[in-house]
Amino acid sequence: MKKISSILFLTVLLFSSLIFSPQVEASSVNQLVPTAPIDSEEYVPYGAKPPGSSASTHNISISRYNYQVARVGAQVYTDKFINGKTRMSIYVNNWKVLDDLGGSNNEMTIVLNNSSHKTIASYTVTIKNGSASAHFVGLNASTKYYITFVVPTNGNKYSFNGYIN
């Protein structure tokens, strides 16, 4: 009887640990896709347009905003508004030239815009060893901003990723 009770207890313990185990969510990466959708009524990719008035806001005082751009030849936008700090740093990593048709291939302009789509500031950065960064200071932590990444429109295509904090 003790053996059956022990087996029953261990079985219940095993199943309860499986059922009630905490779930850990992985850090998300926002996929920014600059190309226009085939049917824009059904699907609008992240980053093809500036965030609209109903877009969510990412507070960078809580966590950094991660992004990834698989292919861009002109410009791409963050898919969310960003707020939470009076200083915003934008880091570009893993810069790759996918199609090199000539011209500049190591520059990008990073533009800070407010939710009214007004340009607040911009920096043209030079990519060195696949990385670059821009820093905006004197911001209002409660104001909603978004970033536009602008690459030269010379036919070249690029990919990169990074984060904003």
What does this protein look like?
It comes from Filibacter tadaridae. This is DUF5626 domain-containing protein. Keywords: Signal. This protein has 1 helix and 11 strands. Strand 7 and strand 8 form a beta hairpin. The protein is mainly β. The N terminus is likely disordered. Helices cover 11% and strands 41% of the residues. The chain has one domain: Jelly Rolls (Sandwich). The strands form 3 sheets. Strands 1-3-11-6-9 form a 5-stranded mixed β-sheet, with no helix packed on it. It has a 4-stranded antiparallel β-sheet with strand order 4-10-7-8, with no helix packed on it.
CATH class: Mainly Beta
- Euclidean distance between termini CA atoms: 61 Å
Shape: globular
What's the number of structural domains? 1
- Strand order across the largest sheet: 1-3-11-6-9
Chain oligomer state: single chain
The major sheet is characterized as: 5 strands, mixed
Secondary structure tally, helices: 1
Mean pLDDT: 81
In the CATH hierarchy, the third-tier topology is known as Jelly Rolls
User: How many strand elements?
Assistant: 11
Percentage of residues assigned to helices = 10-25%
Question: How does the helix and strand content classify structurally?
Answer: mainly beta
Runs in which pLDDT lies below 50 for 5 or more consecutive residues are: 2-27, 35-44
Q: What pattern of helices and strands is seen along the backbone? A: HEEEEEEEEEEE
Beta-strand content bin = 35-45%
CATH architecture, please?
Answer: Sandwich
Whole-angstrom Rg:
22 Å
Protein name: DUF5626 domain-containing protein
Signal peptide: 1-26
Organism: Filibacter tadaridae
Keywords: Signal
